[in-house]
Amino acid sequence: MTKTILITGTSSGFGYQSALHFAEQGWKVIATMRNLDKADDKLKNHSNITLKKLDVTDREQVEQAVAETLEEFGKIDVLFNNAGYSEIGVVEETSVEHMHRQFETNFFGLVNCIQAVLPSMRKNQAGHIMNTSSMGAYANIPTMGVYCASKAAVNSITETLSKEVKPFNIKLTNIEPGGYQTEFFDNLQVASSKIEGYDVIYKEAEEWSNAEVAKGLGNMKKTVALFEKIAGSENPPLHLSVGKEGYDLAILNLENLLKQYQDNFELTKQTN
Fold first, then answer.
1. Beta-strand (E) ranges in 36-167?
2. Which residues are catalytic?
3. CA distances from 160 to 152, 172, 173, 264 (A)
4. pLDDT value at position 191?
5. Higher model confidence: residue 28 or residue 203?
6. Most CB contacts within 10 A, which of 46, 200, 244, 246?
7. Helical (H) or strand (E) element with 193
8. CA distance 71 to 8
9. Alpha carbon distance 23, 17 (integer Å)
10. pLDDT confidence bin for 147, thresholds 50/70/90
11. From CA 254, how far away is CA 248, in angstroms rounded?
């Protein structure tokens, strides 16, 4: 039986490559993006791809896209929440408005899509939701604090939801990429002002980023093939790190967090 996947943010990066790969493997792909003018001929002309305009921050538009998909295909086997972006800026100089905007896309947009597909998945007693997070959720990278915070929120909601929908046989996977050669950095929104004294932080962040890239980027083709392999499978991983560089960085930060808890356990015991 042909499977159906709805993917957000397919104009570039993981979303674009995944849409093409899933379609080549015989899936019916609903490829969504805010601006359909960004869709190239590969997306437009593939017989297994249906393009839909979708701004994940527009709740009404999300519900309409899901309703149309269900009417046309009968079900959504997999929802792949991939839409997202990052702004660059230290916390002090990033406006609250910009923080809201980033969370509206990276977190609340994802929630809009999840809440729209869950009724049909519960009815079918089946479904798989894949959420794109980031190793930045663990690394908490200077100048990318708001992006990392939004992805940490994605991690948390994914884990919680996986427990809540278990009775309905709905699976969750939190995808946590490291560095990849995508349009992600081309789409970075950079804060317009810089407060005196933070220049050293920006410089260190740039040097760190260059060093991480030098360690080796993930292979996009192998990664989207892995996405297709686990999508809708019986026992998909709840957390999936992709890209060895990201895995190493996440493990380093998780081990550091554990060490901090252990090192301060004597203080903790004073609160018993």
1. 49-53, 78-81, 87-88, 127-132
2. 11, 133, 147, 151
3. 13, 10, 12, 27
4. 59
5. 28
6. 246
7. none
8. 19
9. 10
10. very high
11. 10
Question: Which residue bears the tokens 């104009």?
Answer: 11
Residue 110, class by beta-carbon neighbours within 10 Å (0-12 exposed, 13-18 middle, 19+ buried)?
buried
* Cα gap 183→12, rounded to integer Å: 6
Structural contact between residues 9 and 84, judged by C-beta atoms closer than 8 angstroms: yes
Query: What domains appear along the chain, each with residue ranges and CATH number?
Result: 4-269 (3.40.50.720)
H or E element at residue 227:
helix 220-230
How many angstroms separate the Cα of 168 from the Cα of each of 131, 132, 172, 251, 272? 18, 22, 12, 32, 39
Average predicted confidence (pLDDT) for the chain: 92
Assess contact for 2 and 30: CB atoms under 8 A.
no
pTM listed for this prediction: 0.93
Query: At residue 214, does pLDDT exceed 80?
Result: no
Q: Could you tell me if 28 and 3 are in contact, meaning their C-beta atoms sit under 8 angstroms apart?
A: yes
In this predicted structure, the answer to whether residue 181 has a pLDDT above a threshold of 80 is: no
Q: In whole angstroms, give the CA distance from residue 164 to residue 143.
A: 34
Mention every residue, 6+ apart, whose C-beta is less than 8 A from residue 58: 112
